[in-house]
Amino acid sequence: MTSLPEFKGWLAHGWGIEAKTPQQALDLISHIALLAQGRTYAWRGQSDASYKLSSSLYRRLEKPGEPVTEKALRAEENKILEEARRWGLGRDLGPSATDLHLLALLQHHGVPTRLLDVTSDPMTALWFAAEQRISADALTGDPAGVLFAIDVTDTDWFQTFQHHGTQSWNEIGNPLSAVYETALDDSAKTQKMFRAFPALPDERMKAQGGYFLGSAFPKNHQVPGVIGFKPGGAAPGDSKLQKLLKQDRGPGRLAKLPFCAIVIPADVKRKLRDPLRRTYNRRRRVLFPDIDGFKEALLREQLDD
Question: Which residue of 125, 134, 214, 253 is 20 to 30 Å from 285, comparing CA positions?
Fold first, then answer.
């Protein structure tokens, strides 16, 4: 059984900071990126800061009084993979349609998996955080968004399938399951997440600079609100995060930032949308250049975004 720390919001536990102006949001991104040489961050934006950070498969399995376990996640994944292959998905890719590659494709198209969509481009993630929710209540308005920075420097990374000539003996013997099983086994031993990069990225993945984070389900969770993986390290705390905002290089400054949630209030979201569109070219037709992207924009009446 796993334990989940109580979540009281991203600003309540020493892992989050609020960007009160668009300038502060952009400053925080650059200060995190320049915090230390040699660090790599994954970025993810969510348009509603009241939501926790968890996989779609976890949310599918989550039920009151029934803790989600690694065994339950794996069983559901295997069921989904079996049904997807029975449907004929991946048939055109042959042995390239590994479990990890197929799960990445399914996640990309909205099927529940344990993988988390992230990006190497903080402006893309900021666009998702600042996006206006279509379901925003007319009375309460658009909610605050949240931008996550996740240090992935010391995590293993895998391509969703290996090209011929680069496969291990295990992959040759178990071509469909070996890569994903290795990733999960190593993650369970180290209690670290892993990165998965699409070996054949489609136009949307290329436009978004997208890849995935995965993890064996931790025995204990570390960051309240983050479910399914452990960033590693201690909470920086409010005072050090405020130093980060000011880029304070004096005593007590941050030396490492394993995870940070940047809360973007609704009024700041509105002010960010225009510069993201005009200066950074982060707009719907750029980030979703495929037919599904057009369909969604048409149905949402957002063709001009």
Answer: 214
